[in-house]
Specification:
This protein is an alpha+beta fold. It folds into 4 domains: 44 residues, no CATH class; 47 residues, LysM domain (Membrane-bound Lytic Murein Transglycosylase D, Chain A), CATH 3.10.350.10; 74 residues, Single Sheet (Resuscitation-promoting factor rpfb fold); 116 residues, Glucose Permease (Domain IIA) (Distorted Sandwich). The protein contains 6 helices and 25 strands. Helix 3 crosses helix 4. The chain is elongated, with a radius of gyration of 44 Å. The structure holds zinc ion. Zinc ion binds next to loops.
Amino acid sequence: MKKLRLKKKSIVILIAILGLFIGTYYSTEALFSEFISGEFSISEAPIQGYAFIVNEETWFVLEDPREMKYVIDEYQKPMIARLNDKSNITSIEFVEDVKIKEVMYSGTFSSAKDALAKLNENKDEAQLYTVMKGDTMWDIAERFNISFRQLATYNSDINLDRIWPGNVITLQPSKPSLDVIITTTQVVEESIPYTNEIIRDNTLISTARVVVKRGIEGTKNVTYAIKTLNGFPHVVEVINEEILSEPEGGILKVGTQTTMKRRSATDFGVTVGRYTSGFGYRLHPITGRREFHYGIDIAGPQGTVIKAYAAGTVTRAQFSSGYGNYIEINHGGGLSTLYAHLSKINVSVGTRVTVGQQIGLMGSTGVSTGSHLHFEVKRNGTPVNPLNYLN
Ligand SMILES: [Zn+2]
């Protein structure tokens, strides 16, 4: 089918002129036969072709519909290459009014190569930027007045949080002569969060969360329709959701208790151990004198965890000869607590603690006969019986 049709127009004109001068001497048939025997086909009968028409203007005419398909495919190939692998293309359309028309044509057919060149001739080159030392994506976005989101769209192959000098960033992709809208669908499996039923429990401290029944997330297939302009995401919308499994709700116990409480003979909330001395007058175990004891003593192994009585701010975390390593916490409202003879202090002055938070470890520092916690509660600076605050 391939015929050489070069210079056909000029040949036609030439024939017309020759005809004027020598038409009386030779018959046209004779003239034709001379040319037909040469390398030029000069048949004037129109041949079926395929015109690529943009806004009623013919850009080129191809002879073979397969060539037309090839040219359009080649033109759109780089746009399609930008799509996510999991995309399912549902339509490809030109933004301009483009028609492919079957025509009877007697002009010069374009080659596929020329047609492709014609399609690509008006494209604007991409605007690129080479990252320099000290640049951040935010600087670049601001300098070139582009949104960060837009930059992310144009540079999906680059981790924009970690750019290096020499990285080439696309500020504006090349604009093709004919914009193409490619619509794709993509199915993504997503989770459905569960909700927890909350049970308030006044036997648990306010920071406690106890899972009674663990919830199970559901799953769904979400179908997105993604319109891309020249292969860059443009409009994304959810078009379908198919639930694969429903979420199962959980049950959560949330504590409401704002102070530590004594739970048993040995569990005093702030620590665990044996009750060895109460609040009030007693014979001091070391001096042997009758003295007022401003707290309670709970004996246990060195290293037993000591917890904050309630939420508050640490006002003292230091060593003294009598208390040894000790901590004082201001709980507000005139209430403060003191923890003495610690082997280790886990907080410092200014630390904000929550109820039940570990603040140190039991020990025997200062004036002490063995590992124990000396625990004091003060109301407006005056020591009060801690047992009344652990009820
Ligand atoms: Zn004591």
